[in-house]
Amino acid sequence: MIQPIDDADSIDPSADQDPEELLPARMINELVYCPRLFYLMHVEGQFAESIDTIGGTILHRRVDNGTGGLAPAEPCATQSFIPSSDEEPVVAAPEPTKPKKRPKSKHLQPATLFGDDENTEPGNDQTDPDNTMPDAETESDDDTNDPPRTIHARTIHARTIHARTIHARSVTLSSESLGVIAKLDLAEASGNVVTPVDYKRGRPKRMADGTLAAWDPERVQIALQVLVLRDNGYQSDEGVLYFNETRQRVRVPVDDELLALTRSSIAAARRHRESGQIPPPLISSPKCPRCSLVGICLPEETRRLATAGQPIPQVRPLVTARDERRPAYFSTQGMWIGKQGDLLQAKVEGKVVQEIRMNDINQINLFGNIQLSTQTIQTALGRDVPIGYFTQKGYFYGVSGGLGVKNILVRRQQFRLADDREFCLDIARALVHGKIRNQRTLLMRNHREPDATSLRDLKRYANRALKAESLASLLGIEGIAARVYFGDFAGMLKVDCGVSTGGEGFATAEKQPAFQFRSRNRRPPRDPVNAMLSLAYSLLTKDCLVAATMVGLDPHLGFYHQVKPGKPALALDLMEPFRPLIAESVVLSAINTKMVTPDHFICAGKSVVMSDTGRKHFLLAYEKRMDSLVTHPLFDYRVSYRRLLEIQTRLLARRLSGEIEDYPVFQTR
Amino acid sequence: MRRIYLITYDVCDAKRLRQIFKCLRGWGDHLQYSVFECQLTDADLLRCKAQMADILHHGEDQALVIDLGPAASRSETLVQAIGKPYSAMAAPCFVV
């Protein structure tokens, strides 16, 4: 059973109040599981959801509803009650959930579904845990703190303690001396003896002899809870892990060995936090596949690139090939988009023209004058769905994101290294080299009769880019290569040029070939192919910008492209090698498969724009390309181009943090 | 990977009926009264079931979740309609 982050929501915001001092007990759990996971989550503040974390959240719904109150320890104890985050008075705390809401208690949740109902939980079947708070006083009054009584209490466990056990849910306690803050899912108090119960969603570990046991991360977390309880004046010797799937309880006695492990883990956590160095990934660990942060951590990819000498033989495809959600594009002028429940409703003149489920989309893109309600924006940002803004013609304004910066450390590193000329030149060389190589590959694959001179030249320029002395000379090399490449670009258009489609398109009017291309021009584009190229670059910039933001990088500070107000320089950097592979290739396939025809263009003076229908067709072609799978040459697994952009950006972040030596620019073979 | 689920429900109370209908509209296509077709990942299914479990009265109502297999390799004959046509659409993005 591997469950790295099964109760992720229990990271209490109050735990962050004093990051210098208090480590959340949950994070120590992660540290024992994998130090790198601890670093990513606690130091860099990154998080991702997986089926395990979602299951954990669902399991903790009720536990986290608790009052957070626990009767104060015996008066003789020095430390006093530490209020929970909601600061509710302890003793008279009424159970808030049951009376107010729709009576959930009659909705018994069967064990087969999400049963976290304590009625069937072993050990407290006679008590109504919600009414026990006032008992706390009387219980602790007649219960003087002598150890023998605890033992006695256990012997009569079955008869009396059930009726006397006090339950408190979601108790947050901290210990200054340990520097740890812990949130107890459930505290079972019997007199001054408190047993923390931690809810886990899976099943317990089973030893060879069939007895139940717990994994180290969970044991350490329990030990921390016990220690924190002790520090607050309670008596506590053991904790309990409650496994929801099998509804079994596993007792975790806190012995010296566990205490030693716990203390060394706390020390290690401090060390990692202060070092600012990300711990190396686990080696071919069985823990990685189920870890929710595996797409951020990229354990095997990082190891392959970091250990250039003896690369690991096979990179396991731990990242899912595709995002299951799809982008949404809205381009009907005057459209109004609102939200009803979990549905986006696109309305034109008050009539709903399309409903899209929020659960199904990973981007919202607006072309031109389209209104988005505040509720929609809030929901989108809350779910990390970015909103892209374009003009009606497709010029890219920018993106709204949530709070953004998840990983400030990498951003700091980005700013430091952007001032390092050698570093910038290094990255820039690789990018330009990759771009020219990819241009060449595209020509070889798609040109009717590729010109040997052009191919040879492109190869030469690509190699020359690797040895460029300055950013200025790189710019020159890129320019020459682009001229050669675009000079041959028309040869990749395979539409039968002589056929007139009879529309009012730009080209047919003069009985010219349907699509022809002489050279790249823009602002405004003067022929259909250039119009499509511009739109494709615009879309690709958006996707690179989203990728950069997602990873935590600043999209406006690039290494090759220089800083200019409003220019997403880093997005443009990232995009260079992908221009031929995604943007230009989409234009070619849109033309060659006749998804876009000359009818789809409108001539306005010298400039050419796409019609609304044409744009819709082109967006489909673009997304089809982004969704198509490509084999990564270094890792030998197949991922979609959209996922690939993310992976490449994360690798750039690794390069910035110094974990890998070279940024591997993506090149197709 | 997404799988196709047919989710049907029988709810005794008008208020819960509306709630469950609204909840499922967020997860799938409304095919008929009390029948939804949902293409869900494992995580989606978990969330969807949890939402339904919160709404349904566990003593009186029932919802059935029927797994119809992976969405990627769905066959043309998976659902056959008699009467009004039925079609499943798949596009790489939503364009409106």
TrEMBL record, chain A:
<dbReference type="GO" id="GO:0004519">
    <property type="term" value="F:endonuclease activity"/>
</dbReference>
<comment type="subunit">
    <text>Homodimer, forms a heterotetramer with a Cas2 homodimer.</text>
</comment>
<keyword id="KW-0540">Nuclease</keyword>
<feature type="region of interest" description="Disordered">
    <location>
        <begin position="70"/>
        <end position="150"/>
    </location>
</feature>
<dbReference type="GO" id="GO:0051607">
    <property type="term" value="P:defense response to virus"/>
</dbReference>
<dbReference type="GO" id="GO:0046872">
    <property type="term" value="F:metal ion binding"/>
</dbReference>
<keyword id="KW-0051">Antiviral defense</keyword>
<feature type="compositionally biased region" description="Polar residues">
    <location>
        <begin position="121"/>
        <end position="130"/>
    </location>
</feature>
<dbReference type="GO" id="GO:0043571">
    <property type="term" value="P:maintenance of CRISPR repeat elements"/>
</dbReference>
<feature type="compositionally biased region" description="Acidic residues">
    <location>
        <begin position="136"/>
        <end position="145"/>
    </location>
</feature>
<comment type="similarity">
    <text>Belongs to the CRISPR-associated endonuclease Cas1 family.</text>
</comment>
<comment type="function">
    <text>CRISPR (clustered regularly interspaced short palindromic repeat), is an adaptive immune system that provides protection against mobile genetic elements (viruses, transposable elements and conjugative plasmids). CRISPR clusters contain spacers, sequences complementary to antecedent mobile elements, and target invading nucleic acids. CRISPR clusters are transcribed and processed into CRISPR RNA (crRNA). Acts as a dsDNA endonuclease. Involved in the integration of spacer DNA into the CRISPR cassette.</text>
</comment>
<dbReference type="InterPro" id="IPR050646">
    <property type="entry name" value="Cas1"/>
</dbReference>
<feature type="binding site">
    <location>
        <position position="561"/>
    </location>
    <ligand>
        <name>Mn(2+)</name>
    </ligand>
</feature>
<keyword id="KW-0460">Magnesium</keyword>
<dbReference type="InterPro" id="IPR042211">
    <property type="entry name" value="CRISPR-assoc_Cas1_N"/>
</dbReference>
<dbReference type="GO" id="GO:0003677">
    <property type="term" value="F:DNA binding"/>
</dbReference>
<dbReference type="Pfam" id="PF01930">
    <property type="entry name" value="Cas_Cas4"/>
</dbReference>
<dbReference type="InterPro" id="IPR011604">
    <property type="entry name" value="PDDEXK-like_dom_sf"/>
</dbReference>
<keyword id="KW-0378">Hydrolase</keyword>
<dbReference type="InterPro" id="IPR002729">
    <property type="entry name" value="CRISPR-assoc_Cas1"/>
</dbReference>
<keyword id="KW-0479">Metal-binding</keyword>
TrEMBL record, chain B:
<keyword id="KW-0051">Antiviral defense</keyword>
<dbReference type="GO" id="GO:0046872">
    <property type="term" value="F:metal ion binding"/>
</dbReference>
<keyword id="KW-0255">Endonuclease</keyword>
<keyword id="KW-0378">Hydrolase</keyword>
<dbReference type="InterPro" id="IPR021127">
    <property type="entry name" value="CRISPR_associated_Cas2"/>
</dbReference>
<dbReference type="GO" id="GO:0043571">
    <property type="term" value="P:maintenance of CRISPR repeat elements"/>
</dbReference>
<comment type="function">
    <text>CRISPR (clustered regularly interspaced short palindromic repeat), is an adaptive immune system that provides protection against mobile genetic elements (viruses, transposable elements and conjugative plasmids). CRISPR clusters contain sequences complementary to antecedent mobile elements and target invading nucleic acids. CRISPR clusters are transcribed and processed into CRISPR RNA (crRNA). Functions as a ssRNA-specific endoribonuclease. Involved in the integration of spacer DNA into the CRISPR cassette.</text>
</comment>
<comment type="subunit">
    <text>Homodimer, forms a heterotetramer with a Cas1 homodimer.</text>
</comment>
<dbReference type="GO" id="GO:0004521">
    <property type="term" value="F:RNA endonuclease activity"/>
</dbReference>
<dbReference type="InterPro" id="IPR019199">
    <property type="entry name" value="Virulence_VapD/CRISPR_Cas2"/>
</dbReference>
<dbReference type="Pfam" id="PF09827">
    <property type="entry name" value="CRISPR_Cas2"/>
</dbReference>
<feature type="binding site">
    <location>
        <position position="10"/>
    </location>
    <ligand>
        <name>Mg(2+)</name>
    </ligand>
</feature>
<dbReference type="GO" id="GO:0016787">
    <property type="term" value="F:hydrolase activity"/>
</dbReference>
<protein>
    <recommendedName>
        <fullName>CRISPR-associated endoribonuclease Cas2</fullName>
        <ecNumber>3.1.-.-</ecNumber>
    </recommendedName>
</protein>
<keyword id="KW-0479">Metal-binding</keyword>
<dbReference type="GO" id="GO:0051607">
    <property type="term" value="P:defense response to virus"/>
</dbReference>
<keyword id="KW-0540">Nuclease</keyword>
<comment type="similarity">
    <text>Belongs to the CRISPR-associated endoribonuclease Cas2 protein family.</text>
</comment>
<keyword id="KW-0460">Magnesium</keyword>
